[in-house]
Amino acid sequence: MTAACDVLVVGAGLAGLQCARELQAAGREVQVWEASDDVGGRIRTDRVDGFLVDRGFQVLNPAYPAVRRWVDVEALALQSFGAGLRVRRQDSLAVLAHPVREPGLILQTLRSGLLHPRAVAGLLRWAAPAFAGHRRHRGSDVPLRQALDRAGCAGELRRAVDQFLAGVLLEDEGSTSNDFALQLVRVFATGVPGLPRDGMQALPRQLADTLTTPVRTSTRVESINPDGDSFLVTAADSRLRASHVVLAADPVNAARLAGGDVPAMKGVLTHWFAADTAPSAVDMLHVDARAHPGGPLVNAAVISNAAPSYAPAGRHLIQTSALLGPGRPDPTDDDVRRHAADLFSASTAGWDLVARHEVRQALPLQPPPLRSGQPMGGLSGLVICGDHRETASINGALVSGHRAALAILGRPR
Ligand SMILES: Cc1cc2nc3c(=O)[nH]c(=O)nc-3n(C[C@H](O)[C@H](O)[C@H](O)COP(=O)(O)OP(=O)(O)OC[C@H]3O[C@@H](n4cnc5c(N)ncnc54)[C@H](O)[C@@H]3O)c2cc1C
Fold first, then answer.
1. Which residue in 251, 311, 317, 380 has the fewest CB atoms around it within 10 Å?
2. Which residues' Cβ are closer than 6 Å to ligand 1?
């Protein structure tokens, strides 16, 4: 006999979990089926030899509007990074710090050698619309690189900004929507990112813990077929009839199940290293602003300086991130170590590799024009959500789950 339910949510990433908890709060009967062995989707954390390692370096910014609205950030015990960047220059390491959040570093920032008045003016011209408080005109969005060029942001400061944004957007061609980049600028200016005490996966776990029907893990949906006024859903060993289905899978699997074009995705390679001595006492991201960077890394950080819970007492955890993608050779472990040594100006000889995460499908492309708030409807009444329907971020995934819940609540039972 085929079991039945009101709403089936396929996928227990942030979008699916947010959707499920809102539906449940509205009194609907919801089941969540998840292909993987745990909740979280692209936000997973492993414990390895006493270290916490996230599957690909990422951070939580508490200033995201959706995080403020739906996440109990206090319960996550966020451990913040320093508000700024440690910048590799030709012959030195400099600090560029947020003047308000890191007042003690103002002098160092002014003396960094990176703040040439024309470059600073260009950067401010570029970033100003992020704080203008009005919506930008439709049709005015351009690729990020074009917007930065047009604003006149150049030189070493521009290269530091480019490297920082490449690590956030996971592309270094400046092809992402400038409107999306400006949304992120606003969030970075108003909140300092950090890592939860129990790792990034504590975020989706917090959402999952509020569900009264636990997520059914290790259950990969194989097909979703309209059948009369409901759906027949099959997994390897289960069948379910659901009045409504929310497809909250990642962009690639969503396209496979719903029958659309499989989208191109951006990838990242994260190495996690353990060391007895921290290569730097700085708790900020390190970026390379030289005209010819010393290797493939878009950023690196001593994670345990910012988030002590990520390493056992007396040890240190370091992450390095490099982009992956077509037409770009995959960096070798030696390339990574060489560039890390150069970025920190320290030897990596005593570092042990804790984990290496190759995340080829990390983020969907987000070219201009920014198309947040995309229609959620799929074939025959399927509701589709996920970061690919909103913006490629934690905020976008949560908002999209919320919109999917509203779409279901607006339909007849
Ligand atoms: C390395 C990395 C770094 C990032 N850094 C940041 C950052 O610093 N800041 C930020 O805001 N965002 C960042 N992101 C993006 C952010 O993590 C994602 O936008 C967000 O987690 C996407 O959530 P989602 O629910 O839309 O999709 P997903 O997390 O992909 O969830 C989809 C779920 O559906 C499941 N699924 C797929 N197919 C099926 C099936 N057939 N049956 C059942 N289940 C299925 C998957 O297993 C998965 O659990 C990063 C992402 C990565 C990978």
1. 380
2. 10-16, 33-36, 41-43, 56, 58-59, 220-221, 248-250, 253, 257, 268, 359, 362-363, 386-387, 392-394, 397
